[in-house]
Please model this.
Amino acid sequence: MLCAVYKTRRKEGMYLYVPGKNAFDDVPEILMQKFGTPELVMLIPLDKRPQLAGVSKADLEAALKDKGFYLQMPPKEEDMLATHRVEQGLTPDVDNKR
Model:
């Protein structure tokens, strides 16, 4: 199976995988609106790839088969202020001071 990977300019690290170039028929319209204009990153022949970076190959293949697409979300950003507050012996939430 040939898988196309697209990125969005709206959210760093968010990727949309579909089963072929421009195969957006199964992607919900609301998702396409939020995703914006897809930019092709690469085409991946899944049959020839033993593993993928950032996504489980089994999860990807199952999603492509069942839903017709896979949306990879960016990793959760670390709250550096909360981390610093905890290191200082404070609560992580600024609203709950000490």
